[in-house]
Amino acid sequence: MSRSDIPESIKQAIKNIGKAHIAILILLVILVFCQSNILTSNNGTPQPVELYSLYNVLLLDGPFKHATDLNKASLLKYDPDRLLARFRIEADLEPKAEPYGRWGAESLAGHSLGHHLSACALMYQTTNDKRFRDRASYIVDELEEIQKANKDGYIGAFADGQKIFEEEIAPGNIKSQGFNLNGIWAPFYTHHKVMAGLREAYRLLGNEKALGLLIYSTSSFSQPSGVLDYIYSISGVKTIAGQHNKEPNAKPAMWTEYIKETTGKYPGLWSGDFLFQQVNIDNRWTMIHEAERQWKKGAIINLMWHGCPPDEGEPCGWDPGLLNAQLDDDQWEEITTDGTPLNQEWKRRMDDIAVYLQYLKEKEVEVLFRPFHEMNQGKFWWGGRPGPDGTAKLYRITHDYLTDEKGLNNLIWVWDMQDMSRDFEMYNPGDEYWDIFGFDVYDKGYDISWYNYILPIVGDKPMAIGECSKLPGPEMLNDQPRWVFFMPWAELVKKSNTPEEINQLYNDPRIITLDEMPGW
Known about the structure:
The chain is an alpha/beta fold. The protein folds into three domains: about 5-50, no CATH class; about 65-220, no CATH class; about 230-515, TIM Barrel (Alpha-Beta Barrel). It is built from 20 helices and twelve strands. The chain has helices spanning about 10-15, 20-35, 65-75, 80-90, 110-125, 130-150, 160-170, 185-205, 210-215, 225-235, 255-265, 280, 285-295, 330-335, 340-360, 390-405, 450-460, 475-480, 490-495, 500-505; strands at about 175, 180, 185, 240-245, 270-275, 300-305, 365-370, 410-420, 435-440, 465-470, 485-490, 510. An eight-stranded parallel β-barrel has the order 4-5-6-7-8-9-10-11. Strands 1-2-3 form a three-stranded antiparallel sheet, with no helix packed on it. The longest helix is centred in the C-terminal third of the chain and has 22 residues, at about 340-360. The chain is elongated, with a radius of gyration of 29 Å. The model has no long low-confidence stretch (mean pLDDT about 90).
């Protein structure tokens, strides 16, 4: 809007008032013009209004500048450590200063920190005074330490807040009167202020850590409706420890128990396999009942299916069998063409597996299901066929049959690739066909270049280290925070990692073990 756009009546009114009010009036005029769509282009088309960033506004001497200077001085008088003191006390951490009194010491404790964090972010944008950016960064770093100490994402300053939320409010034992909720004065008001401060630290200062704390903190105020919701809630913030268990299916928790013996903790994810040898096929129900038991303990359930080639019977061998027994092109066309003999045989195999998955559905067990792992690995009979009519097509056929024909809506589908070729898009069955991306690391997959390659492919969906021999290190997971779980392959966890390395990873604050899982 130019000066010529302002009506004469308003120009005359401006001459008749004091200079101190001119800026306010101009702002009001702009708002009026925006509301009435007067801001237009040369051809008369209404244009969207774009707000200026505070970075682009320079305050000159006057009442606004004077008020800002007073605000700066006031904000800098507050001691961040005193604002953080109650948060540290509730996390069983030693406070670095005495907490403020009155509201800062009562059950409304914590809201002032949130206000202060928002104010620092806004003041930095307004003044470019680095003291406010540094102060906000310090507060976020402190809140990260507090969140890790609390576990489960909780950040709070009122007495026994975490216990009250988990043991009373979450189960539905609500005692409310006026502003009081189970003995806490306006707890959601207080938490909103803290979350708003974290949001402003991210939005206005670009503090990525603040966003991670904010997202993870939401999990402490709601029970996830399912496994996938929970995995989304920790993405970018935490990583679940997992462990695969394979031969023998007669001992379907053997390597999970090894982790417990080594670290004193159980993994948060248990994994089993339908397998392909006769002795393991005979013990599939043993494996499935272990999956049910692990679910009741609170673990995430991951199931793999090393299915025998459809042109061979079950059982079959490993090599040749699963490996080096590829279908020829005519057979591949047959298995992916509905109604053909090989296609019907594959459906019969799926019928067999569906019995076990249906049992888990009836027990309300959700399953991360990975029927074709390492789809770019050409040694497997199903793998190494890029393009829409290749491995991805058989994946889609399997997905649709188990989902639509068998009604198995308890499956969370995992699309899995190996660190051997950067042609993942050629194996993508379609975003609507998978929920989690699994990445098997047996070569140089921990290199940051792989992480950066995968990010734009998966977008906002969760991504996991689907298999590995060597465990990722804490530093690597800190640099690559989007991995939602890692899962070493059965006996390889012992062969490729020392007990000291396993313990170092399991004791890292980022890692979620079974005792920290939310339960289902």
